[in-house]
Amino acid sequence: MKRIGLIALLVVLLVSVSAFAGGQGEAEQAPAAAAESTDGFDWRQFEGQTIVACWPNHGHYNATIKSGVIEEFEELTGIDVEIDLLQYIKMHDKQVLEMSKPGSGDYDMVSMVVMWKAEYAMGGMIEPLQPFFDNPNIAVPDYDFDDLVPGYVEVTGIAGGENIYMNGEGAELYGLPFGSETSFLVYRKDLFDQYDIDVPETYDDLVEVARFFHENVDGVGGLTMRGASGHHATHGYLLHASPFGARILEKGTWEPAFTKPESIQTIEFMKKMVEYGPPGMTGYTQDEEWQAFLQGDAAMYLDASVFTGAVNDPAKSKVVGKVGYALHPTAKTAGSETGGFGLGIPKNAMNPEASFLFMQFLTMKETERKIIEAGGAPFRMSSVNDAGLQAKYPEFKVLAEQLKYANPDWRPIIPEWGEINSTIGVYINQALTGDKTPEEAMQDAVGPVRDVLVRAGYVD
Amino acid sequence: MSSQSLREKSSPLLFLMPAILIMAFILLVPIIIGLRLSFFEWLLRNVSDDPIFVGLRNYIELFKSENFRTSVAVTIRFVVSVVVIEIVLGLVLALLLESGLKGLRFFRTLFVLPIMVAPVVVGVMWRFMYNPAYGKINYFITSMGFEPVGWLSDPNIALTSVIIADVWQWTPFVFLLALAALQGVPQDLSDAAVVDGANYMQKLLKVKLPYIASIIGVTAILRLIDAFRSLVVIFNLTYGGPGVSTEVMSLHLYKSAFVSQRLGLASAIAVLLLLLIILLSLALIISSLKNKEK
User: Fold this and answer.
1) Is A426 close to B67, i.e. CB distance below 8 A?
2) Cβ–Cβ gap A228/B259 under 8 Å
3) Which has more pLDDT, B267 or B46?
4) What is the ipTM of this complex?
5) Residue B2 confidence (pLDDT)
């Protein structure tokens, strides 16, 4: 069966004669010159090489492994792929260590959480991808770069432009989206029907619904949310900060902006969710957040969209077939997460070109479909908008709509973000546990965050 | 004559020299490099750049930092709690099992198991047990009619939870050493005390404990040093949260080096941690030496 699939894939690749137009991150750059010869792309030019990829233990990546596309790639190209699978939050330290090695490091491909993108790119740790796409020998002819969800490309791949981490002058492409996400609401349709509750459209509705479950349904909390000290609390905060209109740093001046009323409002909201939610949320990492919903202990989930893979997996979820999907509720504005993972190639990779082939193979349309089948997340507009897929996966329809409201400036992912992220998350957590009032906590965070910004030269 | 005595004196040194040199190289050199680095600013994300000399800035920053002061306080509370509890519990267990109890071998094996579990596993295991939704501990508590406890989510309880896990793992270590020491107490000493009419408590306090005091002292020092450096269990159990309520110095150090990526600042913490351990160990060693003289 595998062989037939492989042959079919080869035929598709060889027969296709569409002109090479993909691979252009920047509109002003001309398409590669050697685009004429689309047939006869040499997949086996790096036969015998081995590439090592550092990947997260994460729904989308696990689906990729399960789908068998890696073996397909190995058969197609004769390249050996080794996956170093790590807990996602721990990948950073190992990747930085490997990529700072003089000579060549162990990794040929890194999966980076978007918040590390600017740090890696500005620190010269990963390769700009445009030269690879411009090289006709290794750029797959009908890759169709423009079909990749533009918001995902911006947040996972672009660095050097506006605010360092967005499109704009000086921006370059450093990564491709793979396991990227926005946020939407996942809710227990069965319970909502049973108690005749409307799906929340605003944050006020959300509070009411969460309170209802807390007060009336035994053993089911309102909303499951991450709150553990550090990164997770910050992530939880950002999810709601965007609709409330709160920002971490002031636009233009880089001054801390999280003491403003919108920010305090965000934390007040989170405190209510802690009160109405499943027990112990102030210690929740992403894992506990997911488990609470999958085990049926929470009525709603409002976080990364990649969650749907786990929700629909009977081996992990007790709520298969009992869920509905809706847009991220609005407060002052609509604004959902832009985040997740992208793929990059370390500057000190041993086999960067073989790695680039793998990168393209993983993000091609045909491969994407197979990964979706296995429970992965879509990252191409053609899939999100595909009527057949939307019928099979009802969340795609919501996703297609939600992507219009995804906020590319969701968090300030400057190279120093890692430090700010974990610093501020401690204070947010202290506000959630009641150790400090929201105002106190946010005020206390200003000093340490400003120190980071002063040291890096953003503010005086 | 004098040259011979010199040779006699110097030959042990000569034999020891290779070992001393190797120890000096692998122990002292990293410490000196670390000490030097603590006066520099060096970012992990720019390791290819040269470190920048900043004088005492890292130390000044640490003393001004609320989170660092908290981490020192948390460390001391953690270390003192675990060492005291483990020594007392370990001693009690050893005394219970010392007097030729039936099945001693079985209990000894049973009690030693936790030491052999990798710290990562201990962290994950306790994390599961403390889990508010599906953890066994809260399950038993609630089924007995009590309110569920936020073991890892309540800033007032989290440190206790961490201490429980550490005590669970390391009490057996104290127990083993105490048991070995107790079995080394000469029988005739105990017998003599009994002949003189000593009851159990008198025998324990006047004969056995003084006899094993030095071994217990060494055990305490070992546990103390180990507890100061313990990172893995806390790393997996709470990662320092809620807030910074369980962030011990070694975890603060880790986060400074790998999250904030400031290697100079992390080195400064390492230096302070080293100083603290040396001071406390010296205090313990001196007091146990004084005891011996008495």
Assistant:
1) yes
2) no
3) B267
4) 0.79
5) 59
